[in-house]
Give the backbone structure.
Amino acid sequence: MFKNFYADAYFDNITDVSPSYLKEKGVSGIILDIDNTLIGHNVPVPDEKVLSHLRLFESEGLKLCVVSNNEYDRVKNFAEKIEVEYFVHKALKPRALGYNLASKEMGLQMNEIAAIGDQIFTDVWGAKRAGCFAILTKPLHSGGEGFFIALKRILEKPFLRKRGNL
Ligand SMILES: [Mg+2]
């Protein structure tokens, strides 16, 4: 029943996910979450390490698509800043909608896509529902997120613990 809450892989940070690992999984495109996956809370752009890792993905032939529940302007501006061509705004994660749009944008099947995000009930659930390879990373910054996200983090704990991630 809860199988969609378990990621296919767990990493500390997106920069720990190597292109060769993804390619072994048959991945040709990556769906990227923004907040706490690429950037910390209230930080406008990713740090150099994350940015250069995105360029590494691309240089290895992996397509990138930012998929966010945020408004058009924010997602578009962010995608431009990090020089990623494809983006989907108002994705309504954890619904499959945004993932389907991203798959169309990148011209890839779901089983060729990995989704990387920091939230189980948004990023992992959405990716699993849509049929992507779901990768959970630790949130870049877990403070100052507000009550509801803090609550979600608590609810996520049993699913992390079961995989020995804590
Ligand atoms: Mg996030």
